[in-house]
Design a protein that fits this description.
The protein has about 450 residues and is an alpha/beta fold. The protein is built from 9 helices and 30 strands. It folds into 3 domains: about 180 residues, 3-Layer(bba) Sandwich (FAD/NAD(P)-binding domain); about 130 residues, FAD/NAD(P)-binding domain, CATH 3.50.50.60; about 90 residues, FAD/NAD-linked reductase, C-terminal dimerisation domain (Enolase-like, domain 1), CATH 3.30.390.30. The strands form 7 sheets. A 6-stranded mixed sheet has the order 3-2-1-7-21-20, with helices on one face. A 6-stranded antiparallel sheet has the order 24-25-28-27-26-29. The protein has a 5-stranded parallel sheet with strand order 9-16-10-11-12, covered by helices on one side. Helix 1 runs parallel beside helix 8. Its cofactor is FAD.
Length: about 450
C-alpha cells in the first residue's frame, strides 16, 4: 500500500554528504519511521572539497568542515561502525560490532576512498599521505605549515593538481609526476590539458609527464622517489593522488551488481542484483553508484561530484517513500568545478563522452575560454576557464541534444565555431589518476554463474 512507504525502518549505510542529504530528504518527504545512519568514520558528515583547498592553505581547519544540517533528520547515528554485509533475503545490514540492523528499505551511500600507494611498506613511510579524510587533511596541512623543502605529488588529476596549486601558493617547491601526457587529461581531454600543463609550469611546478614513480625511498621517513625515466626526486613530503576506490568490498557476497566501478542501479536509484534484475528495497546514491543516462547513450555513469551526491540522494529518498508512478528519475547533468593556479575551471556534461571539441568563446592564449565537446554530431559537454557565466547556455545545449559544432548564439554568448579538433580523450589505463566522470559501458563486472 502506498501509505506504508511513509513508515517502517530505513537504514542508510554511509554517513556521507549523500547519506545526510538523503536522511533530511526522507523527513521532507513525510517519512515518519525510523532512520538509522551507519558510518565507518567517527565524525558526523563533513565536506571533503575544502580539504584540498582551504584546509591546506591554512584558511580553515579540518575539524571545521562539518556539513550544515538543513533540518534535523531525527536519525539514529551509528558512527565509527563499519557495515560488513547486507542480507537481501533477511533484510538486514550486518555491522562489524556483531550487530545486524533490520530494514524495510536500505540506501547504500558508501562513497569512495583514496587509492593507496601499492607498496604497503613504502606507503607507511612518515611523510607519505593520501587526501580523502579529515585526518588526512589535518595531517597534510600540518606538514605543509612546517615548510618542507619539496613536496612530491603523484598523479595530476583534480585532487593532485589542487594540492600542487596549494603548495605553490604557500611558496613550497613541488614536483608533480603523471603517467599521462598532461595534467587533467583524463577528465578534460588533450587540448585543455595542454593549458593545464602550461599553467602549472608557469607557476613554478616541476611537472614530469609520461613517467611513473617506481619506488618511494626512505628508512622510516620519506626522503624521495625513483621515477621510471631513471631520475630521482628528493622531497620531504609525498602525496599519493592516484584517484579513488569505490567502497563496495563489503557487498561481495550480497548478490548485488557491485564491482570496482560501483553499484549498478536504474535511473530511479534502485540497485540491480547481479543478474540485472532491479531490487525494490535497495537504493544507491553518490560516488558509489553507476546509473544509466539517456543523454549519454544510456551508458552507465560513475560520478565523483559533490552536486551529484546531493541530487541523487534526494531522488533516492523520494523514490524510497513514494509508489512507482510517483517515482522520478535521476537525470541531472554532471557539473563540477576546480580552482587551481589562479584559474576557475567549471565543467558541465561528460567531457570524456566526446570525439571532437571546439573553442566557442575566448582562446587558450587568453586563458579565458569556453570549450564545447561533441559526440557524433551533438553537444555532450562544455568546460569554461574563468568564464563560468556562459555555462548555463551550454547546459541548455546539452539538455536539448543540440547539434555539434554549436550554432552561433546571442552576441554575448557563443560565436560560430567552425574549427573542430579531436577531443583526444585518452584510454584511462594510461593515466595515473582516474577520470572523475567515467562511462562504464555495458561490461559486467564479473561473470555470472549460470542459474
Amino acid at each position: 500500500m502506498p501509505g506504508d512507504l511513509k513508515s517502517g525502518r530505513i537504514v542508510i549505510v554511509g554517513a556521507s554528504l549523500a547519506g545526510l542529504r538523503a536522511a533530511e530528504a526522507l523527513r521532507e518527504e513525510g517519512f515518519t519511521g525510523s532512520v538509522t545512519v551507519v558510518g565507518d568514520e567517527p565524525h558526523a558528515p563533513y565536506d571533503r572539497p575544502p580539504l584540498s583547498k582551504q584546509v591546506l592553505l591554512g584558511q580553515a581547519t579540518a575539524d571545521t568542515t562539518g556539513l550544515p544540517m538543513r533540518r534535523d533528520p531525527e536519525a539514529e547515528w551509528r558512527l565509527g561502525v563499519r557495515a560488513t554485509g547486507v542480507d537481501l533475503l533477511e533484510k538486514r545490514v550486518r555491522l562489524d560490532d556483531g550487530e545486524s540492523l533490520p530494514y524495510d528499505r536500505v540506501l547504500i551511500a558508501t562513497g569512495t576512498r583514496a587509492r593507496p600507494w601499492p607498496d604497503q611498506r613504502e606507503g607507511a613511510l612518515d611523510g607519505v599521505f593520501t587526501l580523502r579524510t579529515r585526518e588526512d587533511g589535518a595531517g597534510l596541512a600540518e606538514r605543509l605549515a612546517a615548510r618542507p623543502e619539496r613536496v612530491l605529488v603523484i598523479g595530476a588529476g583534480f585532487t593532485g593538481s589542487e594540492i600542487a596549486s596549494a603548495c605553490r601558493e604557500l611558496g613550497i617547491e613541488v614536483t608533480v609526476a603523471e603517467r599521462g601526457p598532461a595534467p587533467l587529461v583524463g577528465a578534460l581531454g588533450g587540448t585543455l590539458a595542454k593549458l593545464a600543463a602550461v599553467m602549472q609550469r608557469n607557476h613554478g611546478v616541476d611537472l614530469r609527464t609520461g613517467v611513473t614513480v617506481t619506488a618511494l625511498n626512505g628508512d622510516g621517513s620519506f626522503t624521495g622517489a625513483q621515477l621510471s625515466d631513471g631520475s630521482r626526486v628528493d622531497a620531504d613530503v609525498c602525496v599519493v593522488a592516484l584517484g579513488a576506490i569505490r567502497n563496495v568490498e563489503w557487498l561481495a557476497d550480497s548478490g548485488l551488481a557491485a564491482g570496482p566501478r560501483g553499484i549498478a542501479c536504474d535511473a530511479g536509484c534502485r540497485a540491480f542484483n547481479m543478474y540485472g534484475i532491479v531490487t525494490d528495497d535497495v537504493f544507491v546514491a553518490g560516488d558509489v553508484s553507476r546509473f544509466p543516462h539517456p543523454l549519454f547513450g544510456y551508458q552507465m555513469l560513475s560520478l565523483e561530484h559533490w552536486g551529484n551526491a546531493v541530487e541523487q540522494a534526494e531522488v533516492a529518498a523520494h523514490n524510497m517513500v513514494n509508489p512507482g508512478p510517483l517515482q522520478r528519475p535521476h537525470l541531472s547533468i554532471p557539473t563540477f568545478w576546480s580552482t587551481q593556479f589562479g584559474l576557475n575551471i567549471k565543467s558541465v556534461g561528460v567531457p570524456t563522452y566526446s570525439d571532437h571539441v571546439v573553442i566557442a568563446q575566448g582562446s587558450l592564449e587568453a586563458r579565458r575560454l569556453a570549450m564545447v565537446y561533441g559526440y557524433q554530431g551533438r553537444v555532450t559537454a562544455a568546460v569554461t576557464v574563468d568564464m563560468a557565466k556562459s555555462l548555463d547556455y551550454y547546459r541548455h545545449l546539452i539538455e536539448t541534444a543540440a547539434p555539434f559544432p554549436p550554432p552561433p548564439g546571442a552576441q554575448d554568448r557563443a560565436i560560430a565555431a567552425d574549427v573542430t579538433i579531436p577531443s583526444a580523450v585518452p584510454d584511462p589505463s594510461v593515466l595515473s589518476h582516474g577520470p572523475t566522470v567515467a562511462l562504464t559501458g555495458y561490461l559486467p563486472d564479473r561473470r555470472l554463474t549460470v542459474v
